[in-house]
Amino acid sequence: MLATDLDGTLLAGDVDARRRVRELFAAAEAARAGQGGPKLVFVTGRALESILPLLSDSTIPTPDYIIADVGATVVNGDLRPVDAIQQDIAARWPGSQAVIRALAGFPGLKRQSVPQERRCSFLVGEHDVTPALRAAVDALGCDLLLSAGCYLDVLPRGVGKGPALLRLAEAAGFDPATIVVAGDTLNDLSMFETGLRGIVVGGAEPELVERVRKRPLVHIAAGEGCDGILEGLAHHGAIARDEPAAAEGARGRAELVMVYHRLPYDEVVEDGVLRHRRPRSPNGIIPTLLRFFAGARAGSWVAWSQQPSRAPEGFATHVDVDPERYPQLQAARIALTADDVDVFYKKFSKEAFWPIIFSFPDKAEFRQDHWERFLEVNRLFAERTAREAAEGAIVWVHDYNLWMVPAFLRALRPDLRIAFFHHTAFPSSDVFNILPWRREIIGSLLQCDYVGFHIPRYVENFVDAVRSFAPVDLCGSTPCAPQFLTYGCALGVDTMTTAIEAGGRRVSLGAHPVGTDVALIERIVAKPEVALQAEAIRAYLGGAAGIVSIERLDYVKGTLEKLQAFERLLEAHPEHIGKVTLLNIITPAAQGMEIYESLRVEVDRTVGRINGRFSTLDWVPVRYFYRSLPFEEVIAHYAACDIAWITPLRDGLNLVAKEFIAAKKACGRSGVLVLSEFAGAAVELHGALLTNPYEAHAMTHALHQALTMREDERAYRTARMAMIVAEHDVARWGGDFLAAVERAGALAATEAKAA
């Protein structure tokens, strides 16, 4: 059993030594169920709450027991108290308030505001520990512990790291002869005074070294941190002295690795031959990411490829993406079965994560077996990424489907710079914390060097989620205005956190709303056939004002609420009857997504009711299309219609809003964008008419305002939003994100060098 201090000991040392110590205790989990294998005990002065991030840190071995608060807290690795020890300590503790009252007359003491039980901690000056102070502590029936000349702890009588460890060994039935202790400060002295074998790691507090120098069972190591632990374990015969370092995993050549659930092309089988086609999706994200590989930068794109088995015969893991455009880029394919994709993506991600991300917890379904499959797939992504990346490469992981990749990847490749972009919303912490696996997910994201979200609100939601998980230090912030709305918008915040430190790791944060491909939309609008389509749509409307609504079938999109608001508009404002038409275009959900079937039935029924109530011989209020449209036809609808009505109940961003504005600008026409306050784009698109989709009157009022708006105001709003959309297009999104990752890396390197 290794009983080790954390800061300066287990958490220090070079990368290779820390990896070797982690691997040494890789059997710890199995050891909990049996009697074999090494055991690990964290013995620390930290409060238990500050240790929580370490339990989800894949680079740190998992403990069997934790002794925290300088011995005042003793728990199992799963945080269950070791009751016999805890109860005895509690019985000897007079209580924090009694200690504070007794020491109130000593002005040199400064209370440390950290969560603790059965312990009070203070910062003290060099001359503040007087005989009178010692006498006051003794009168309480407590002990005083001073370390590093400035940290003073008041503890129950007889409590300390060493006594707690001996009591734990007795309670758990461990032979003291098998225990090795390790530390680096006077805070650890009581462990070395137990008579157990010990290791004082290199760089330890000089007074500790002096106090233990003559103890024959204590080895004073030259190596710092984990290097010293390994040296000491070899000295005590716990591991072979000449044990070689574990072989490093093979390094790849990619300087930039994209980790995305989709390949940068569509795989289709024609006449029994697998062929590549450009993606059918109109969004510009994949083409934008591909541009980073247009030069000499060596790259890899890690994604899944659906196959009959995990190891299909003749499967090529590496495929050229486009040798002419991207000569240094290869797709690194992960073979997943149809069942893998069904469970990992269609079922678990959409049934467990999706409802939580968009704050619909009542629709969430949690299954442990699906979570385990999710972990398995994420591990496959991490292992493939680790083999692709060159030393010190940037790895850019995309979206919640791959939440756990950073945890696996950091353990495999500590040298990498890991960046993560969240393409969806990030919910408030009280909703996020409903997830049974919230600690694992937050722990994984804290392994990143940089995490990006669409808007500042999601950054702050993430920070709050981390706060509810572990102590957090805020390392920087920035004003959100003028780019983002602050007050008067549901998703507005006035300042955004730019970096945090939790569990000993610094993570930089940023807001990067995805843009649309403005140049592509301009080219499409300029096509004669698209102009003809737009004219045909106007003719089809027959002089009525066109309201376009294009969205995927999903309960988060608020389709039913929108239809009900349109029905109320016709009731409250009969002057619009015959003069306005809603073009309601709904893209079907992916095949196999049963969760949306009941929604489709309800939408069909509502459209039928509205048309049945208000239709005339020459006018139908709702034109409903349940199918996917080619992107050029979508752009033609934007160009032809006067109003875009985009009112999701929740949405990470919403690119449809930006596409509508870009299309109106390209065709030289004004338009009105009615946008939900709960779409991320609402805080970015100054000039949109914002509405609350949960408030029936607000929805109807906003649509009426759009229909009656004067042309000069429409033109002003369109121009203002068009400037924003053009300036922050999808190319800038990608460039800004990667530049922020580079800056965060440079700052971290500078701070490490200064330290």
Question: What does it look like?
Answer:
By secondary structure, the protein is an alpha/beta fold. 39% of the residues lie in helices and 22% in strands. The protein has a ten-stranded mixed β-sheet with strand order 16-17-15-12-18-19-20-23-22-21, sandwiched between helices. The protein has a seven-stranded mixed β-sheet with strand order 4-3-2-1-9-10-11, sandwiched between helices. A six-stranded parallel β-sheet has the order 26-25-24-27-28-29, with helices on both faces. Helix 13 crosses helix 14, helix 21 (559-572) runs parallel beside helix 22 and helix 24 crosses helix 26. The chain is elongated. The model is unreliable at 243-248 (pLDDT under 50).
